[in-house]
Specification:
The complex is a heterotrimer. By secondary structure, chain A is mostly helical. Chain A has 13 helices and no strands. In chain A, helix 1 packs antiparallel against helix 12, helix 9 crosses helix 10 and helix 10 crosses helix 11. The longest helix of chain A is centred in the last third of the chain and has 39 residues. Chain B is mostly helical. Chain B has 12 helices and no strands. In chain B, helix 8 runs antiparallel to helix 10 and helix 9 packs across helix 10. Chain B is elongated. By secondary structure, chain C is an alpha/beta fold. Chain C is built from 21 helices and 22 strands. Chain C has a 6-stranded mixed sheet with strand order 6-7-8-3-9-10, with helices on both faces. Chain C has a 6-stranded mixed sheet with strand order 16-17-18-13-19-20, with helices on both faces. Chain C is globular, with a radius of gyration of 26 Å. Classes of the chains: A mainly alpha, B mainly alpha, C alpha/beta. Chains A and B meet through helix 1, helix 6, helix 7, helix 8 and helix 10 of A and helix 5, helix 6, helix 10 and helix 12 of B.
Chain lengths: 314, 288, 551
């Protein structure tokens, strides 16, 4: 167990290294001069030169990379070119709504898609199965922002059950929080629900063909025990995997959803940063989300060990 | 004893085995219609997609303007018809590009174990960066042309292809016919070409359809966020992005392109599913 | 018999649930009485497993369905019973054990919990009572330290132990009927012997009726009271086991019995060549399983000595059998000889040249020609996407032979292995398992090898097909003056085709010598145990009579 965990942890280091390399190259190698971008069109060559020197842009790439990494390692992610505030502080101010949105979407996904997938696999080929599959393929085919607008149109504008837009933190009370976050959470979860219910169904179908499921039935166990105790736990690993890799997709959804529902989160911040070419802010947000992705997948690797004793006793 | 010890059959036979499901037929019809619409856009569209008409702003649908007009008085139907060109091209570019790059990498990673460790960590790193952030950054930092958008959407898809191909190679490697080929003196590159590559093609084609669909969605999302292809070239994404500003006045500016886009993607996804069921019954999961 | 039968099957028909249904069972009938063991014996596709699934009400839904007939358990028709009723009967009144102990237990639940479920599903018992009953059941099947087993996960137990757990679960509620579907096929012979004895003992204690499904006539001799010979969904012949085996009425039964290789070694062939084509000198293979992390943590990694100091020599025209159970290292020896695996130390001389240090396909080219292989599973050893012709000429073309010439030779060789020439243009799925094994032989012969390594080459085949493939192999050996290295777990096969036999256990050579000496007068305890465990060894299948105990 310990060596399994350490191995996973060690594997995360090269992954983060490559993330850093990609981000670094992305910002340095894309056409367009960062110094020019910072100084604006009226800058004199001398001003540009000065900015280049202060950013270390005249050094060889490898040297730039090492100093850049070194600064990150000390927690120095730099100062926003636009607002002149430390980027970590800016991120800190905007991260709350994004985390809340992601967690709500994740919760909705688990609550809705697991039973859906299990039921579809159990009644394989039946009406329920076809309904679940139809729902999931539609979930894959409609853009998140369209789902957002449809939800707003139906539940906020026509039925007036929810406010059209906006966000209240949990600190303002659970009622206002839930009232405002439900629709964006559902919009964000839609594609995730499609993905996870589909994977649950596929994985369950596979497991239901296994010998030990036949053994469980041969013992005369009720179907519900066969499905949830014997099959679902064995089907868990591919489902968990897709929950982990789907996190990247979730981030894409977050950016769009925050725009649709006007939520002041990281997603809006990053779009604004990109449009303003605020390099330090862009790189900090990308590194942060990538780090979160790696961390989440590390946790998921650990959860494999909890569901499967063969990994635990490795 | 097992009830189903049937021998593996050639994919060609499975493809032709049974009549297609009605959804597959319908999806093919829709998709062919959209492709024809894109090909013959100048014939089908009633107006130039970019011709402005200040007198006819935000008109509802009628006999002349089948989907109404947008805020500049441009005919929405014509714009949607022309928009199909960009969306389909983006999808094709991303699907082809990610396969052309990902396939050889996946084959090499699956066969040469030393290369595998490094290459896969690199792919993990690429996957860890949320695709839309990478795409937004690339498009915004360079200039938003069609090629840039294709590259920006393609990069995050490459690891998916590499992982799929690699896992297929690893599975096929354990088949004894690969050992047999080694014993017959077949050299590694030839062995990969002859024995491993064919087994990756069926799932790769299926994955290609999903990537195609996902790319069109991502293009739409990029346009929606204001970092897509410029509005002088209509794409379903930027038509919706513009329509969003007038959503309260006329939601159909968003819904018409959304319906066409969703139908297109739904058709591609359904065809992908049908292909998968035929070619590759084992691959039931999918990546986004 | 005056007692009512426990299970009475009448005119049972099963068909596939496809648009054009194919009949899998064509109306079979049989009875089993308390305390009796009925064997269903037949080759693959005979319908014997389907029979057991009907009885348990476990037919795969939407794939197979009963179209006629009934199966009465204590007079109650299971085919017509409600799902709730069959569920109540399953595990309590009838129970089943399966072929694959490695996959029949749920890998993520403890053995104790899986046992507990049986009691919870059928009996109103308190938790401590259930646990006591579980421990007692584990003890009754001879599992060591039941308390430890109770808390273990399946992967921590050996195959034999898992099958004991399955038996304990099946018999925990003392069912009237036990169905055993090839319960020992996946086990080593020594374990098989113990499991068969266990089933026998528990059956006598509980007076259980046993429906035993097997393809192995030897197992039939050891366990059956009565036997039903099945073929293509029909019962061909049925009767008392001794009667059916000594005086079979049907030709099919006679053929089946004739195909069982005898355990007494065939007369030795005189050595006619001193041409030593293959020699192993003190070959070792160690698999090191230490990861980089455990090295960092300073932990002892564990290594497996899969092949330990193995030496032998093989002359042209001779057959050497390597015999052993799973984990004996016999297949690793083969993989080292073929250089699919790099030996850790030692020399492998092919026609006098050491190939152990060679690396890369170019350096190994001559060795690849000289040593060819036939694999165990004919379904996997031919690329399903290539025509037979392409598979056959791959090796010669790698060696530089022209395509046309190679194809012409391939056609000739197909005729040698008794397949039509036009098979060249067909795909592997168009052939049966036995035919594919012939194609594999032809592919090996295309290289004009000096040695053929056959790794369990007939183990996946039905007995009748097995005999044909073995005959063919002997014929081509004679014709091309080949040396054959034959890896097998089956002593009967080894006795029939080997000149010399090497017995391996845990990577080491236990005994090595002429087949006649080793199999008739084993010196080592392990060899003796192997021979004693061979199923049906007290029956002479050729003569149809019991072999008298040696005085």
């Amino acid at each position: 167990m310990l060596s399994y965990f350490l191995r996973r942890l060690l594997m995360a280091i090269p992954v983060m290294f490559f993330v850093a390399v990609f981000v670094f190259l992305l910002l340095r190698l894309t056409p367009g001069d960062p110094a020019q971008a910072i100084a604006g069109d009226q800058a004199t060559p001398a001003q540009l030169q000065q900015i280049r020197e202060s950013l270390g842009l005249n050094e060889p790439l490898s040297v730039q990379f090492v100093t850049w990494i070194g600064r990150m390692a000390h927690g120095d992610f730099g100062v926003s070119l636009i607002s002149q505030q430390p980027v970590l502080k800016m991120i800190g101010q905007r991260i709350g709504p994004t985390v809340a949105l992601a967690l709500v979407a994740m919760g909705l996904t688990v609550l809705i898609s697991l039973p859906m997938g299990v039921l579809a696999a159990w009644r394989h080929g039946g009406l329920t199965d076809r309904a679940v599959m139809a729902f999931s393929v539609i979930g894959f085919s409609v853009p998140v922002f369209v789902i957002g607008y449809v939800l707003i149109g139906v539940f906020a504008v026509n039925l007036k059950w929810f406010p059209v837009q906006g966000y209240k933190p949990l600190a303002d009370g659970i009622g206002p929080f839930a009232h405002r976050i439900f629709l964006p959470g559902l919009a964000l979860a839609s594609i995730y629900i499609a993905l996870v219910s589909r994977m649950t169904r596929a994985s369950m179908l596979e497991v239901l063909r296994e010998d030990y499921v036949r053994t469980a039935r041969a013992k005369g166990l009720p179907e519900i025990v066969v499905l949830f105790r014997h099959a679902l736990r064995n089907a868990a690993i591919p489902i968990l995997t897709v929950v982990g890799t789907g996190f990247a997709m979730m981030i894409s959804g977050v950016v769009v959803t925050e725009t649709v529902f006007n939520i002041p989160g990281l997603g809006r911040l990053v779009v604004d940063a990109v449009l303003a070419r605020d390099y330090p802010l862009i790189q900090a947000i990308i590194l942060l989300t990538a780090g979160t992705y790696v961390l989440i997948n590390l946790l998921i690797d650990l959860s494999y060990a909890l569901t499967d004793p063969r990994i635990r006793f490795q | 004893m097992s009830l189903t010890t049937s021998a593996p059959e050639s994919p060609r036979r499975r493809l032709m085995d049974a009549p297609p499901h009605w959804t597959t037929v319908l999806a093919s019809v829709v998709l062919i219609a959209i492709v024809l619409m894109a090909l013959f856009a100048p014939v089908i569209a009633n107006f130039e997609p970019t011709s402005l008409n200040a007198m006819k702003r935000l008109k509802p649908a009628d006999a002349t303007y089948w989907m109404g007009t947008d805020s500049y008085g441009r005919d929405l139907f014509s714009r949607v018809v022309y928009g199909a060109r960009v969306s389909l091209m983006v999808g094709a570019g991303v699907a082809l590009g990610s396969i052309v790059i990902g396939l050889p990498l996946g084959l090499l990673a699956g066969w040469f174990r030393g290369l595998d460790a490094v290459l896969m960590r690199m792919m993990d790193g690429l996957m860890a960066i949320p695709g839309i952030l990478l795409a937004i950054a690339i498009v915004a930092l360079t200039n938003a042309g069609l090629t840039t958008v294709v590259i920006a959407i393609m990069l995050p898809e490459i690891p998916q292809v590499v992982r799929l191909v690699r896992s297929r190679v690893l599975a096929t490697r354990s088949e004894t016919f690969v050992d047999a080929a080694v014993l017959l003196g077949t050299a590694p590159l030839r062995l990969i070409w002859r024995h491993l590559l064919p087994s990756t093609l069926a799932p790769l084609i299926v994955q290609g359809t999903y990537i195609y669909a996902a790319a069109i969605l991502t293009e739409a999302a990029l346009s929606f966020l204001g970092v897509g292809i410029g509005t002088e070239t209509p794409s379903w994404g930027n038509i919706m992005a513009e329509g969003r500003l007038y959503f309260a006045m006329n939601p159909w500016l968003v819904f018409w392109p959304a319906i066409v886009l969703s139908l297109c993607i739904l058709s591609i996804n359904l065809l992908g599913d049908a292909l998968r069921d035929r070619l590759d019954p084992k691959m039931k999961g999918r990546s986004a | 018999m005056s007692v009512d039968p426990v299970l009475s099957v009448r005119n049972l028909k099963v068909a596939t649930a496809a648009r054009r249904p194919a009949e899998i069972l064509k109306g079979i009938s049989f009875d089993i009485h308390p305390g009796e063991t009925l064997c269903l014996v037949g080759e693959s596709g005979s319908g014997k497993s389907v029979t057991s699934l009907v009885t348990m009400g476990l037919l795969p839904r939407g794939e197979l369905e009963v179209t006629a007939g009934e199966a009465r358990l204590n007079g109650e028709d299971i085919v017509a019973a409600t799902p709730a009723r069959t569920r109540a009967l399953r595990g309590a009144d009838m129970a089943m054990i399966f072929q694959e102990p490695m996959t029949a237990l749920n890998p993520v639940l403890t053995i104790g919990l899986q046992m507990d479920e049986v009691f919870r599903a059928h009996r109103a018992m308190r938790a401590p009572d259930r646990k006591a009953a579980a421990l007692e059941a584990f003890a009754s099947v001879g599992l060591p330290s039941p308390a430890r087993i109770h808390d273990s996960y399946p992967h921590q137990l050996s195959g034999g132990q898992r099958q004991r757990v399955m038996i304990a679960m099946a018999l925990a509620l003392k069912p009237k009927l036990l169905i055993a579907d090839e319960p020992t096929t996946a086990l080593d012979v020594t374990t098989q012997k113990q499991i068969l004895e266990l089933i026998r003992r528990l059956q006598e204690e509980q007076n259980t009726a046993v429906l035993f499904i097997t393809h192995d006539m030897g197992v039939v001799v050891d366990i059956a009271d009565r036997v039903c010979v099945m073929r293509n969904g029909e019962i061909v012949e049925t009767g008392e086991v001794e009667k059916v085996l000594s005086a079979p009425r049907q030709q099919y039964t006679r053929d089946l019995l004739a195909a069982v290789p005898a355990l007494t070694p065939r007369p030795a062939r005189a050595p006619h060549s001193q041409d030593r084509v293959l020699e192993l000198i003190e070959v070792n293979k160690v698999f090191s399983l230490q990861s980089a992390i455990s090295r960092l943590l300073g932990r002892e990694g564990h290594s497996v000595h899969a092949v330990n100091n193995v030496s032998f020599r093989l002359e042209r025209g001779r057959t050497l059998g390597i015999v052993g159970e799973s984990g004996s290292g016999k297949s690793t020896v083969a993989r080292c000889v073929l250089r699919l695996e790099d030996p850790s130390s030692g020399a492998i001389l092919v026609n006098g040249h050491d190939i152990a240090p060679l690396q890369g396909q170019r350096a190994l080219a001559e060795a690849r020609r000289a040593v060819q292989m036939i694999f165990q599973d004919p379904n996997r050893s031919l690329n399903p996407r290539l025509r037979i012709g392409e598979s056959l000429i791959e090796g010669p073309m790698n060696a530089g032979e022209a395509r046309v010439a190679a194809l012409a030779r391939a056609g000739d060789l197909l005729e040698v292995v008794r397949l039509p020439r036009d098979s060249l243009d067909r795909y592997p799925h168009q052939f049966s398992g036995g035919q594919r094994q012939r194609i594999a032989i032809a592919r090996a012969l295309m290289m004009s090898p000096d040695v053929i390594v056959a790794d369990e080459a007939v183990s996946a085949l039905d007995v009748s097909v097995q005999a044909q493939v073995l005959d063919l192999l002997a014929e081509v050996q004679q014709r091309q003056n080949l040396a054959v290295l034959f890896i097998t777990h089956d002593l009967r096969v080894a006795a029939q085709i080997c000149d010399d036999v090497m017995v391996m256990r845990r990577g080491e050579v236990v005994e090595f010598g002429p087949a006649g000496d080793i199999l008739a007068r084993p010196q080592h305890d392990y060899t003796r145990a192997l021979i004693e465990a061979a199923p049906g060894r007290d029956w002479d299948f050729a003569q149809g009579r019991r072999i008298p105990e040696p005085a």
